[in-house]
Amino acid sequence: MPVPPATPRPTLEAVAARAGVSRATVSRVVNGGAGVTEQLAARVRRAVDELGYVPNRAARALVTRRHDAVAVVIAEPETRVFTDPFFALQLRGISEELTARDAQLVLMLTRGDEDSERVGRYLAGGHVDGALVFSVHLDDPLPGLVRRTGLPAVFGGRPGDPAATPYVDCDNRGGARAAVRHLASLGRRRIAHISGPLDQTSAVDRLDGWRDITGAGAGLDNAPDLLASGDFTPEGGARAMSTLLERRPDLDAVFAASDLTASGALWTLRGAGLRVPEDVAVVGFDDLRTVAQHTDPPLTTVRQDIEEMGRLMARSLLDAGEGVDRPDSAAPDGIVLPTTLVRRASA
After folding, report:
1. 269-296 pLDDT per residue, tens
2. Interstrand relation of 153-156 and 69-74 (parallel, antiparallel or unpaired)
3. Cα–Cα distance for residue pair 158/135, rounded to 1 Å
4. Phi-psi category of residue 252: left, alpha or beta, with phi > 0 → left and psi -120 to 50 → alpha
């Protein structure tokens, strides 16, 4: 059966003929330019609707110097990004906001300095209107590379580089304090902490929150052997929990720097024959529902609104590009969202 010929796409010239105006007038209306009366603009819009005209994005970019595309740069390898639900939630929030504003998401991952250089070259090549960058490590060259491109950028999480602003983050330190205070309110006095990777500010802030409370007296043990390093993964949490039990078999509570870390700690505690929360109470951080509601027992944790952080990152970037003044961006450096303690059965 012969394939019918494709219907040609309406052109700017066809719209101009239908509206009875010049091609330049149509171009200004379609691309948001000034200098066209409302009466003429209404005729052009009507002709666009009648003909089903769809602007050519490449041609539009030449006129507006905008690509309607945003790079989302995650400073982690694929093996981490596609297995950690934190990134899925943040990407969902970003994608929702970009879609609502008719912008395309370009996902880029980095595994080291070479990947960072590749990303820097792409961003400098004029393919996107801005960058959203998160999971940056303290020694990462990425913030400097992004800054040198001159592109607008918003960072997810407080960056270690003071010049890498603006950013969107949650109150990591305050959330950690709330977690440890809760454990202390249950009568726990030997509260261990499994940190995240300490080359990330979120992990450092959560560690500082643990130290704020355990070091404030009130009979809490703040010995250094109650601290073990993790990496925000279940496997890292399990290893760190084993280390803590070897050092301090008398510990009676654990604040883990993430829900995935806490899930690994729960495996180790169960394997050691310890009951949660009767013998050891456990609190996580993030409130990843797919994790926290399905551990055994369900996990008490600190909730941060990960999707909203993604939405705010995208909104801040797009609004800045459009010259929109946002009241919630009054602080020039960043937006910090509150955290809340969510109580379940583990503590």
Report:
1. 999 999 999 999 999 999 999 999 999 9
2. unpaired
3. 10
4. alpha
Quick check: 145 and 136 in contact, CB under 8 A? no
H helix intervals, the chain = 12-19, 23-30, 38-51, 57-64, 78-81, 85-100, 113-124, 142-149, 172-185, 201-214, 234-247, 259-271, 289-292, 306-321
Report d(CA 119, CA 133) in Å as an integer.
11
CA of residue 213 relative to chain centroid, distance: 28
H-helix or E-strand containing 106? strand 104-109
Whether 282 contacts 269, CB under 8 Å: yes
Question: What is the phi/psi pair of residue 88, to 5°?
Answer: -60, -40
Task: Answer with the residue of higher pLDDT: 119 or 180.
Answer: 180
What confidence tier does 117 reach under pLDDT thresholds 50, 70, 90? confident
Reported as type and span, the H/E element at residue 195 is: strand 191-195
Instruction: Tell me the pLDDT of the chain averaged across its residues.
Output: 86
Count the Cβ atoms, other than its own, within 10 Å of residue 35: 9
What is the per-residue DSSP string for 225-254?
A: GGEEE--SSHHHHHHHHHHHHHH-TT--EE
The model's pTM is: 0.78
Q: Which two three-digit tokens encode residue 69? A: 């595309």
- In 3D, which of 43, 52, 1, 50 has the Cα closest to residue 19? 43
Q: Answer yes or no: is pLDDT of 322 > 80.
A: no
Q: What is the DSSP letter of 6?
A: P
SS3 assignment, position 327: helix
DSSP symbol at 316: H
**Residue showing tokens 């280390």:** 243
Gap between the Cα atoms of 128 and 86, Å rounded: 25
Classify the phi-psi angles of 232: left when phi > 0, otherwise alpha if psi is within -120 to 50, otherwise beta. Answer: left
CA 45 to CA 42: how far, in whole Å? Answer: 5
Determine contact, residues 334/161, Cβ cutoff 8 Å.
no
